[in-house]
Specification:
- This protein is α/β, with parallel strands linked by helices.
- It has eleven helices and 20 strands.
- Strands 4, 5, 6, 7, 14, 15, 16, 17 and 18 form a nine-stranded mixed sheet that branches. Strands 9-2-1-13-20-19 form a six-stranded mixed sheet.
- The termini are far apart.
């Protein structure tokens, strides 16, 4: 079979790898010059099976309202004249109850555990090096109330087989001594030794190179102009090459199957052929700081609950990432809101790890390497993986903040579905008997 994959992030490249392993002729198309140049470029680096609670919970609506006028808020809703945003928001509110939360957690954990195993198998097979640290993930709390409530999250994860542990402040500091200067502001934490961290971009780009060595064809620097549909199926796609001096030639490509793995851009593309999935861009930010004091910098990947930011060490650099901004397809870093959110990352690291990293701005002589990307968010935080209902057309998108955590397994699972097999996990795949679209759309009574 011949399969064309649209998108060269962790999701698309993983799908290509597993399809090629099954003998498919594979073409990967992406508008960028190489793999992992958009949402997979500079994320937090965490493989966080244990930290996957959906954004939608019973407390989320009140928090979202409170945060609307705080440019540094963890979740910032920026109203637009865009009915897709408002529809998504209403569907999100429909998930803000205990019953929906419990069901969504089960789905996310199932995919996370399956994906973690798939990643470990891929690393063992390929030997890819990507600043991998198998030291777990710690989550620390800066208020007594938040630490008390953490016990509920621990119990939920343990019910699903994830060994997340509640730890005291002293235990947390033994796990990661780097936070000792901030100890007076820490009330306790949680820790999952089986989680890990690593650079998603490095992994994805090396996996893409291995795909190419095994015969996968890449059309980088190409825009997807349209999906050509006839007789209830997608028969071809039309793409156009990007050139420095303007648009290049168009070409139409045929295949036995087509996979849309374009992150946030999947939804508008799919709507052109009548597939309407509730995927909306959530703008996330990161900063990559040079480590000045290697012995004082953390090795354990961590989450700061107060600011909802994550930090992971990549060699002599510290990656700090977080926040969600729901405001459309805006990738600017120079707006007042964007600058405030970037500044928050620098200020928070200096507060927690004083003097450990070079957090100076460019104006001060530093190189903070700020970045933003659009996380493809669904109201439930559950991605869409499976057949769209349109002939030959498949989707692998909507992974939100967990694309790196779920990437390896999502690619493996979709490759199995295209081959007519059922992946070995309890997950609501699109087109496989359940109706995951309805999960995102229908309010569920608590």
């Amino acid at each position: 079979m011949k399969t064309i994959i649209l998108g060269a992030g962790i999701i698309g490249i993983s799908t290509a790898w597993h399809l090629r392993a099954r003998g498919h002729d594979v073409i990967v198309i992406d508008r960028q010059a190489e793999a992992a140049q958009e949402t997979s470029f500079a994320n937090a680096g965490q493989i966080s099976v244990s930290y996957c609670e959906p954004w939608a919970n019973r407390e989320a609506p009140l928090k979202a309202l409170k945060w609307m006028f705080d440019a540094q808020a963890p979740l910032l809703f920026r109203p637009q004249l865009d009915w897709q945003q408002w529809r998504w928001a209403l569907q999100f509110l429909g998930q803000c109850n205990d019953r929906a939360f419990a069901r969504n957690v089960q789905q996310i954990v199932a995919l996370g555990a399956y994906s973690h195993t798939a990643l470990q198998q891929m690393v063992a097979e390929t030997g890819i090096s990507y600043h991998r640290l198998e030291r777990g993930i710690a989550h620390f709390y800066s208020s007594a109330q938040a630490f008390e409530e953490a016990g509920e999250a621990v119990e939920i994860m343990r019910q699903h087989g994830v060994q997340r542990q509640l730890v005291s402040r002293d235990e947390l500091l033994r796990i990661e001594p780097a936070f000792t200067p901030y100890k007076d502001q820490i009330f306790g934490g949680t820790f999952t030794p089986t989680d890990e961290s690593g650079d998603a971009r490095a992994f994805t780009q090396q996996l893409a190179q291995l795909c190419a060595q095994r015969g996968v064809q890449f059309l980088y620097g190409h825009d997807v102009l349209r999906l050509n549909q006839a007789g209830g199926e997608v028969q071809s796609i039309t793409v156009r090459q990007r050139l420095d001096d303007g648009p290049g030639r168009e070409q139409t490509l045929t295949a036995d199957s087509f996979v849309v793995a374009c992150g946030s851009y999947s939804a508008p593309l799919l709507r052109t052929v009548g597939v309407d999935l509730p995927i909306y861009p959530g703008k996330g930010y990161s900063a990559t700081f040079r480590i000045l004091q290697p012995d004082a910098a953390p090795f354990v990947s961590c989450i700061d609950d107060a600011r909802k930011i994550a930090m992971s060490r990549f060699g002599d650099q510290l990656r700090v990432a977080g926040t969600i901004e729901l405001g459309g397809f805006d990738l600017s870093l120079d707006s007042p809101v964007a600058q405030a959110r970037c500044r928050m990352l620098s200020e928070r690291i200096e507060e927690i790890l004083p003097g450990v990293c070079d957090t100076r701005s460019e104006a001060e002589g530093g190189q903070p390497n700020y970045w933003c990307g659009l996380r493809p968010a669904t109201p439930t935080n559950i991605p869409f993986i499976g057949h769209t209902g349109v002939g030959k057309l498949w989707v692998n998108a909507g992974h939100g903040t967990l694309g790196w955590t779920h990437g390896a397994g999502s690619g493996k699972a979709l490759a199995a579905l295209i081959a007519g097999e059922r992946p070995a996990m309890d997950f609501g795949f699109l087109g496989q008997g359940r109706d995951p679209v309805a999960w995102h759309q229908r309010p569920i009574e608590a």
